[in-house]
Structures are given as C-alpha cells and as structure tokens.
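Box 3.1 A note on notation
Throughout this textbook, protein chains are presented in two layers. The first layer is the amino acid sequence; the second is a token string describing backbone geometry. Keep the layers aligned when reading.
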Amino acid sequence: MEPMDIVGKSKEDVSLPKATMFKIIKEMLPPDVRVARDAQDLLVECCVEFINLISSESNEVCSREEKRTIAPEHVLKALEVLGFGEYIEEVYAAYEQHKLDTLDSPKGGKLSGIEMTEEEALVEQQRMFAEARARMNNGMTVQKQSDPDRGFNG
C-alpha cells in the first residue's frame, strides 16, 4: 500500500516527533517488553498514515456540509465513516478533557508565564494603551501627567 499523498509535501517532509512517539510507545507497554527500532519506526509511520486518513475524511465531511473549517464534529464523523465508531466516545471524552485543561492556560504571548500584581498589570496596561495611542496618532505622543484621583493616565 502506497503512503497517502499529502498536498504540497513529500513523504520525508511529514512526520511526527520520534522521541515523543517512542516515549508514548514505551509508556503503553509493560516495562519488560522491548520494541525493536524498526518496529518503532513502523508504528510512527502508521500513526502518520492514520492522521492523514482521518484528516482527509474529516475534510470530505466538512466539504459535504459546505464548510471551510474542519470542526471536532467532522473528525468524529470521519471516525465513524472509516469504521472507528467504537472509539468516538473515548475520543470525545479526551477532547472535552483537553478543552478543560486548556481553558485556564495562557495562550502564550509576551507576558505568558509572568505573574504580576494588580498594580503591575495596571501599569503595563497603561503603557500598552499609550503605545497604541501613539501608533494611532502616527507616532505623535502627548505625555499627560497622571491624575491620582482618576487612577490612570489620559
């Protein structure tokens, strides 16, 4: 069986992080079981093919609904169409757990991972507002003295 064609990519361009995959494989097996390197490579290739298969079918489901963005429902329907219906409940539960896990996590950005006091956050917010005002005024900034009664610059 030929590997699935991936739009604009050669087979060598598409892979999964092998170290991560090997870790997952090792965690799924009893400690006394060893897996040959070529068997690990084969498992990684199977995972890539599975992802390609599910992605392709999800795209088909999405297209039939005349949508342009693949949604979780499309992936679940693709699993069903491809004969993996018995996994849908477990996949959906994992998806819901992922949503809960990422709900409170920062989305990344300049300040992710930095904890500030409320005062520090207010100062940072004021600085960002001042930068935005300056950009809107084509770089012409007018510095105003802060008014302690108002609680902010401006």
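The radius of gyration is 25 Å. The chain has five helices and no strands.
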